[in-house]
Amino acid sequence: MPDSTYKPLIVQSDMTLLLETNNEAYESARDELAMFAEMEKSPEYIHTYRITPISLWNAASAGVRSADILASLQKYSKYPISDTVVMRIKQISDRYGKVRIIKDRGELFLETDDEFIMAQLCVEKTVAKFFIDTPRANRVKFNATYRGHIKQALMNIQFPPEDLAGYAAGERLEINLRSDVFQPRAYQLDAAGAFHAGGRGGHGVLVLPCGSGKTIIGLLTMAELNTETLILTTSITAIRQWIDELVQKTDIDPELIGEYSGEKKEVKPVTVTTYQIMSAKDRNEEQKHFQLFSQRNWGFIIYDEVHTLPAPVFRITAELQAKRRLGLTATLVREDGHETDVFALIGPKRHEMAWKVLEGQGWIAQAECFEMRVPMPAGLKMPYAVASKRDKFRIAAENPNKLEIVRKLIANHADAHILLIGVYLEQLEQMAESLNAPLITGKIKNKERVELYGRFKSGDIPLLVVSKVANFAIDLPDANVAIEGSGSFGSRQEEAQRLGRVLRPKKGENKAYFYTIVSRETREEEFSMHRQLFLTEQGYPYKITDEDV
What is the pTM of this model? Predict the structure, then answer.
């Protein structure tokens, strides 16, 4: 039989890819596809991917061009790739950088080598409205104030621009790393180097697994740029962790580091704040906090967990294109479809490190993932049957039979540090009371949270019940078991973040366990499959078990 018979991939003319999992080349094909395609479905035997414009442009910005993509597809495809697919990949991928933003004598221009593209831009109202002059020699001047807005408009007509206009230096601040305290890992240096590669060092997103030390990469970039820096993150806990890292691992005077939160309003040469403060529900309050972006001459802005960036911060970021910008995240997946805004306003993906690669090198824990399906109680079957779609999900998520499975898992991991994670507060309160375990929710004051986290780290508390507040930025390196009692519908990013809570490297056996408990034959099964897509793409298959109670 011809060799092609044994290849694992089918490339379809609608830009979907079907990958056989029961094939020796599955893992290598999966790793290559992840560079330029997005996973859509992951049942047992055939995984479905889709090639999209944003996946191709992120690949192009990271140096993976159309020829590389086609070579990968041809290497693994059972059948010849249609001319339609070849042409579309070339056309879409090669559009990245066809239009450039440049600076000449202090003014900003759109530039292209193709007169037909310039003609198209001139008649495209969403782009041309920002032009100040008529085009000359395939370049046209535009209002620098709208640098971010014109990038969004170009993305919308599928001409992702390469921004070469440079950045304001900002106020200088000498920043050195303390080599006597720590040594950056090789992959952290590689990631920071990718941000600065080719003199770009101005905008972009770095994608690395949870637990890999993305904060360290932020410090490395700060030390390279030596400028006043504004850091946006997800919570007051994350603020304090960034400040601790800055104090411990750099020579910045602690008096020059400020916290801008609900508890303090310090604006200093290095200031750490939260997205929540920046996106207050009251518009007047929001505008007051937005002044933070102009209160100092920032030369650098770091967006931690950039995939959670809320719409109000996108708006202000559109006005900040002269500032250097770094996005840090474990996944570029967004459930709201704003991936193109991250690309346009923060920057394209500059570097990505596969989760399994770091696991293989021992930098994050080896993780096993399980989906445990439990029956609904007889008394809830009729209420579930007649409920609305949204209520069906909640009834299934709060299935009281899940508690028995939680007890079983706790008994099976008697010496572990266990996080029990959920969405619905009433469910969490009942579980915490039944298990005699402390509960951390958004209602718990930060001081009390820190105390409970400390007792968990010391081993005084072996089990913590936590709400969505624990999805991000809690530093619990000894946590090695996570049990997901309920999740946010089909949120892939939440699933990734929750696994990330237990991925920090462990002393001794470097292993972690992630259990998600779902109600059998309910909508929760459907959403669970979608939640698992990103992690499956990263190489974390879920072992599915049926449980009786």
Answer: 0.90
